[in-house]
Amino acid sequence: MSALLPPEGWGFETRAIHAGQEPDPTTGAVIPPISLSTTFAQSAVGTHQGYEYARSGNPTRAALETCVAALECATSGFAFASGLAAEDALLRLLTPGDHLVIPNDAYGGTFRLAARVHSPVGLSWSAADLTNIHALAAVWRDETRMVWIETPTNPTLTVVDIAAVAAFAHERAAMVVVDNTFATPYLQQPLALGADIVVHSSTKYLGGHSDVVGGFVAVNDPETADRIGFLQNAAGAVPGPFDCYLVLRGVKTLAVRMDRHCESAREIVAMLEAHPAVAHVLYPGLPGHPGHGVAARQMRDFGGMVAFLAAGGEAAALAIVGRTRLFTLAESLGAVESLIEHPGRMTHASAAGSPLEVDSALVRLSVGLETTADLVADLRAALDGVG
Ligand SMILES: *Cc1c(COP(=O)(O)O)cnc(C)c1O
Predict the structure, then answer these.
(1) Fold of domain 255-384
(2) What is the pLDDT of residues 75-128, one digit of tens each?
(3) Where in the sequence of the chain do the CATH 3.90.1150.10 domains occur?
(4) Residue 250 to residues 218, 223, 258, Cα–Cα distance (Å)
(5) SS3 170
(6) 347 CA → ligand 1 middle, Å
């Protein structure tokens, strides 16, 4: 949305702190002001400084859009009121009769949006195991126009080879969307791997502090950018200026936060692997994880999300999530606080009975930024004594 792109060659952290965030030309303010005005003065009809009405564009939002687009190495970025508002805009790129493929372990809200919002108005969809190109080929139709990748997936941390799926889809003239919420642009750059569109729930790692709901879309193709920009304004699911400020503040520390999330996740995984109350650990950093090779190739590091199957089944999983003290029992992820949850009864309850239903023994962790040893001790204490 804004013209002030960073110079080529700036590193990730430099872009996070400076892209779209030049000192304010009128006051010198180093931080982009939270611009609350809903309308902007015109010196003559149609002559203005780039802003007319705040749904169409707002200086705080423009700063955020320039910054996060720069982090995804995209030419255009669009901020939305939530991750699902951003996803909804992307599904509106399709028309009735088109077919969409989503992962068979997609985020529950993505599944619900396709199945219960867009399907009743004419979109058809299939869920497939995107780690297997043959499974994708098996659900492919002449009308398939979009493949929706999530990698690593929520909550099972399955890794999908973005370049391989993009090559398959592009040969058949379909668009590829990547939900990059779990990895963030610091760990994974889907556009460089061949995806057409990146989508985020900024509510998670981009915001990073559990205090703002937001969504984001980044693209390179100018025609797709025009269509998304049109939908952002025409359907109007835009974030407020204060929310934009919070996400922009969050992304400044994204790189250092992600490094620590990854480091602590590694230590927690090592403890879980050795604990008798844990049947299986799902983490792409483990050499035995089926997606480890692809993750090592397409990601900088393996992320702060960890899942595991409790050896004692659902009853044990429910006991564990109720026994931690530092890991707060709550939905959401990606913030400074460590969180624990039971996807089957919480985030993925809406997928019950569908192909996307999750294992009832599954526990999901969002590893936060508390002292690593404290996190390990808290989890170990919760696991000790649970069968
Ligand atoms: C949370 C989440 C979403 C939805 O985002 P909201 O901001 O809650 O609307 C989409 N995808 C993934 C992977 C998520 O974790």
Answers:
(1) Aspartate Aminotransferase, domain 1 (3.90.1150)
(2) 999 999 999 999 999 999 999 999 999 999 888 899 999 999 999 999 999 999
(3) 255-384
(4) 18, 30, 12
(5) helix
(6) 10
Q: Name the residue of 105, 181, 184 whose CB sits within 8 Å of the most ligand 1 atoms, as the mutation to test its pocket.
A: 181
What residues act catalytically?
Answer: 55, 107, 179, 204
Asked if residue 2 has its Cβ within 6 Å of ligand 1, the reply is no
Residue located via tokens 């984001």: 216
CATH code 3.10.20.30 for 12-252: no
Query: Which has the closest alpha carbon to 371: 260, 256, 262?
Result: 260
CA-to-CA dists, residue 378 to 169, 274, 316, 344, angstroms: 44, 15, 16, 23
Residue type, 123: L
Domain with CATH 3.40.640.10 in the chain: 12-252
Mean pLDDT, the chain, whole residue set = 95
From the CA of 220, how far away is ligand 1's center (Å)? 22
pTM for this predicted structure: 0.95
Distance separating alpha carbons of residues 387 and 244, to the nearest angstrom: 45
Q: Is the CB of 89 under 6 A from ligand 1?
A: no
Residue nearest to atom 5 of ligand 1 (CA): 83
269-281 confidence digits (pLDDT tens): 999 999 999 999 9
